[in-house]
Amino acid sequence: MNKSFDRRTFLKGATTGVGFGLVGVMGLYSYSPLRKAHFPNVDRKMTDIGTLKSVHVTNISETSWFENAVLMGDIKKAGGLLVNQYDYNWPPFGNGKGLGKGSYEEGIAKIKQYLPHDLEKAWSIIEQECVSVENAGGFAALLDIEELDGTKRKFLLDSGWSYKWMDECFKREGIDAMLRNKEIEALIISHEHFDHYWGLPVTLKYDPDITIYIPEGFYEEGKQYIKDSGHTGKLIEVKNGLNKIIPGLATYVFPVPIICRVFGEQSIYCNVKDKGLVSVTGCCHQGIIQFAETAYNELKYENDNFYGIYGGLHISPFDDWDPKYDDLVISLRNYDFDVIGCNHCTGLVCANKFIQAGYPVVRGTAQHRSKDTAYLGNGDTITFG
C-alpha cells in the first residue's frame, strides 16, 4: 500500500529526530530506508524519452560554500536544520538584524530595485546587511547536448548563490556571453536551496527572458524571487514525476523533504546513443539509490545500461562519516556505472572512498578554489558519449 506524505508529516517526524544531532537529523530523512516509504513500488514502465548523441558537462561552480564550519555554525546558532532558509539572514536576503532574524520580504526590499542589472550595487548592500557573506559560493553546471542529427543545444543547471562569486564563475567559463547570445535555451533549477537558487539574478542579468524550469514544491518566497529578480521569460513548474524536455533529455521531480524548509528536487536523465543512461543531479537529496532505481523502474535506455552519473550525490556532504554511508558506497556497485563524475555535496571523504573501491571516478584539477582532485571541481569538464 502506498503511504501518503506531506510537509506537516515531514516536520513532525524530523522534529522528533532533533535529539540525534545536526547530522543525525539529516540522516533521518536523507539516508534512511524509511525514505523509500514516500515512493510507490512499480513495475518497469520502459518509457521512451528518446536518444541523443552526447552530453558534455562543464562544472561552472561546485563550491556551494567555502567552509563547512561556518555554514554549520550558522545553522546551529540560528536554530537548526528545520529553520526556514530565508530566516537565516544569509546573502542576499539580509535585513541587518543578525543571524536567524532575517526575512525574505525585508531582505529583498533592500536590493530589489537593482536586480538583475546592477548586481554590484546590490552586493554592496548585501555585504552590509547579511551574515557570512564571504562563505557563500554556489552550484551551477552547463550541459552541452548534441542530438543525433548533430544539432547542439545548451541547458544551465542551477544558478548558484553569491552574486559576486557566480558572476566571476560565469565570466570565467563564458556563460555570460552564451546567455547574452541566447545560446542557452533554458535554466533548470534542481531545488530551492540557497546554494543552487539564490544566485538567480546572475543568470537573469545576461538573459532575463530565459525559460526557467522549477520543480513542484517551491514556497511562495521562492516563486516571488523569480519575479523580484526581473524574470521576463517563460516559467514552467514541473509536476512530480517525469518531464520530457527534448529527445533524449528529461527531468524527474522527486517529492522529498529537504533541510532548511525546502521541498522537492528536480534531476536530469539523458539517454546516450549506444552507451546508456546518464544521470545528472544538483544534490540528489532523494538519495543516489532512489535516483538509480527510479530510472530502472521508469525509463527505457540504450543497452539497459547505467552509463554515467554527474553531480552532487549527497553522501556525507559535510565530510562527516557514519557506517551507514559505507553501505551506500557498496550498494553503488550494483548499478555498474561506466563513468562517475562527482563533486559538491558528495563530500571529499565519499569521493575518495569511491576511488578506493575502484569505481570509475573522473578526477579533477582542484583549480579555482576547489579543494581536491578526488572529484570534478570548478572549471572541470566531463563528456558522456
TrEMBL record:
Residues 150-227 form the Metallo-beta-lactamase domain. PROSITE patterns: TAT (PS51318). It comes from the Bacteria. The keyword Magnesium does not apply. Gene3D superfamilies: Ribonuclease Z/Hydroxyacylglutathione hydrolase-like. The chain crosses the membrane at residues 9-31. Pfam families: Lactamase_B. One of its GO terms (molecular function) is hydrolase activity. Keywords: Hydrolase, Membrane, Transmembrane, Transmembrane helix. This is MBL fold metallo-hydrolase. The lineage of its organism: Bacteria, Pseudomonadati, Pseudomonadota, Alphaproteobacteria, Hyphomicrobiales.
